[in-house]
Structures are given as structure tokens and as C-alpha cells.
Amino acid sequence: MNKTEILSITDMSLPELEALCTSMGEPTYRAKQILSWVYDKGATTFGQMTNLPKNFQKQLADQCQVFQTKVDTITQTENDTEKFLVHLHDENVIECVLLREGKRITACVSTQVGCAMACQFCASGLLGLERNLTAGEIVEEALHVKNHLLPDEHLTNIVFMGIGEPLANYDNVVKAIRIMNAEWGLGIGARHITISTVGIIDGIRRLAHEGLQVNPAISLHAPNDIIRSQIIPSNKKIGIKNILAAAREYFEVTGRDISFEYILIDGLNASKQNAESLSMLLKGIQCNINILPVNPVEEFDWRPPSQETIEIFRRTLEKHGLVVTLRKKKGSPINAACGQLRLQRHKFLWKN
Question: Where along this sequence does the record place binding of [4Fe-4S] cluster (predicted)?
Fold first, then answer.
């Protein structure tokens, strides 16, 4: 059995692990014991699971692994943001980020190795798409963050805003969410889980009917298709009209407000006129808007607007009754904008 065929505990739901225990001649309650060690106590090997019979520990170790990924490096910035570069079994690397804001402690996780969306402000897509992450690989990002926390800290939120388009890896992402949400898993409330998407229409509609009260965050970034297609090339096949229709459907089915993400780029989408157009576009939609100055990336020419321009943009939206949050820039001192640390690693390997 090669490494890619070894079963990983983090890829399994409770029923799947119960079936595995039964196949090894053990009672089903062993599954919850194993999961408690992994998700509650931070165990990384079967040998640490002291309430399991020794022969069962050996059986598990022969057929399974607790973790399939490992942390390569952790980089910290002055605002308690920490970025994890995580090694996968196939020598690929991904990123996840620990964000602290008072008692709110968030893990920002990736869902793919690379990205096919090629958004023109994001380093994630510069190397293209390698593959989807498994559910377990996604879950382990959150576990790495959780296991790194101080004794008095607790993981409270998950955001799917790292490398990759979550809804392009739909099945693995939904399975990871169910594991993160489960009482036997990470126990994170669904309303504390946010999924960011560039607007995969079928994915948004499917997610609305999953019975999960997760928060969708749609990367809008423009008040019209002409500007949005410059920023997000995939918009040419999607279109803002279709995205907003899917957003309305999500709200109607789930009752959950929609968040729209809006990166402010100087000279492109950040003028007062852009804000007026955006206000008219979103009129009547139960939503909130998160605005954020673009993080400069060496490979792109776009820069953030002035603080005055940002304030005018925000005030214009609020004048029209929209709920606006100006998100703080965290992580740019450690290349924590999406994909930048992974990109730097690839540049280093290429040069050497």
C-alpha cells in the first residue's frame, strides 16, 4: 500500500470510521475514542491513544495515518497573524492562516493546490491549478492551527478564503465542513463558517440545499461586468446578473444574509461613481459588503486607493442604506495575501 492509498483519519466521517473499526474486529465506540484523540486532545499518532488496545493501535498504524500533512514553516507578523506553509504527501505546498481578533480566533484554509480562476489581484492563480485538496487535507489545516494555539485560546471560526475556489472542489469542501461542524469533529458552529467564492452558480445553489447554515461570501469586486471581467476573467462565463440571482436564492432558502467581498483597486473600481453603481446593483438584496484595499502583489500593477478615496466609497454605500465593513489588512507584512508565501517558495526552488 503506497502513501496515497493509506487511509487518513481526517478524511473519515464517524460512520466511515465506525465501519473501519468493525472491519478490524473492534466495537463501533472505538471510532469516537479515536476522533476524540484527534480533534479534542491533539493526538498525532495512534500510540498516543492510550485507551485503545495495543494490538488495535498496531492494526490502525498498519492501515491508516492520523495526519497526511505536516507544517513546513510558520511565519508571524506583529498583529498576531500567523501563516502556515503546509506540506502535502505529493510534495505540493498550501497555505493556511491563523487570525486573532480578541476572542475571535479564525483559521483561513485553502481548498485547492493552486487555482484556475486567475483573479487579477491574487497570487493563488499565478501557478495554475495542480489539484483539489481532499476533505482530510482541508480539515488538517484547521487542526494545525488549533494545535498551535495557546492553552487559553480556542478556535472559533473557519473561513474558506485561502488558495483555490472552494465551490470548484464542492464535494470535498462540503465533507470538510461537516467534519468541522460535527460534535465529534472540531465542533465549529455552521454560522461561524464562511465560504468565499468568485460566483460558481451551481455551487451556490447546491450549497443552499445542504442544510448547512454556513455564510457565503461572494467575491464581487465590481459594479458591472466590464470591470469585473478585467478583475476576474471567469466572469465572462458567469455574469453578475446570474451571481445575484443565485445569491437571492441562497437567502430565500437559508435565511442567511449574503456577504459581498469588494477589493478596492485604485483607478479601476474605487470611485464614488463606482460606489453609486454598486449601491443600485445591490438594492433590495439582504446583504453586507466587506471592502478591503487590494494587497499589492509584485506580478500585478494594481495598488490600493488613498484613505480618503476609501472613506468616500464607504460613506457612499452607507448613504444608500447598505451595511459596510472596512476589513483591516492583515498579513501583508508576512506575504499572507492569498498564495504569496507559496509563490515565494516556488520562486526560491526555481532559482536554486
Answer: 115, 119, 122
